[in-house]
Amino acid sequence: xxxxxxxxxxxxxxxxxxxxxxxxxxxxxxxxxxxxxxxxxxxxxxxxxxxxxxxxxxxxxxxxxxxxxxxxxxxxxxxxxxxxxxxxxxxxxxxxxxxxxxxxxxxxxxxxxxxxxxxxxxxxxxxxxxxxxxxxxxxxxxxxxxxxxxxxxxxxxxxxxxxxxxxxxxxxxxxxxxxxxxxxxxxxxxxxxxxxxxxxxxxxxxxxxxxxxxxxxxxxxxxxxxxxxxxxxxxxxxxxxxxxxxxxxxxxxxxxxxxxxxxxxxxxxxxxxxxxxxxxxxxxxxxxxxxxxxxxxxxxxxxxxxxxxxxxxxxxxxxxxxxxx
Length: 325
Known about the structure:
InterPro entries: ARM-type_fold (IPR016024), RELCH (IPR040362)
Keywords: Membrane, Transmembrane, Transmembrane helix
GO cellular component, one term: trans-Golgi network
Order of helices and strands: HHHHHHHHHHHHHH
GO biological process, one term: intracellular cholesterol transport
């Protein structure tokens, strides 16, 4: 590979892979339905066939450039082909969107999805979902949705579930408002994808653990000041998808989710009603409505704290009350 990079060796088939094959594959990906699984399998087969070094120094940089990464390391590619590789970078808003819709899912699942790239996939996904939204130059809502759509494709493959949920939890506990909104969106995406996947009766325990983890995330998000739009479009649908598989839900979690749905639905309906007259008094006055909203918020926070107390208590079942002297 180093000899080819320095131009001291001719290897037509080797160069054809990264000069012509990948370029044509990227064009094909943009013409096929997004998240074409046959292309993912092909890319995984290439990395398995050519090895980790090829994946790291050839295949990965080509795909990073194709999704708009300016820092892709092209050192191991022949300098003569650098202009062609750099030409794969999207130059317009439409091209960038197409790359996010069609190429990013392949980068995540087909290139970084290789077993040897687990850590790099985790870091790359964390950068997309967490770090990019905590900087001043945040990606647009449009790009966020496309990133989440690419992650949804990644959710199809069970080997990535723990990694994705770990990043989701980072987003849940972060204090950044934008991250919490994206966490709700991602939660809805993951639950919808997993609930749509068929599962056998032999993995009930695994599904129960997974769904209970989702419940913890939902209850943590419920204790925050999410906008009514985020609640209506993402949080409530995520809960409804969990209810499709009620046998896997812990009874305490199920009851808590039912309360969340009831209170959040009522709050959402309240915001759609025309605001009352400033002279209105009594239970429907602006002050009363604000007080009720604050009361609901306080109860949500207490529910979240109470679940933490229950978990702590469960860890110390033998704890005895202090003796009076």
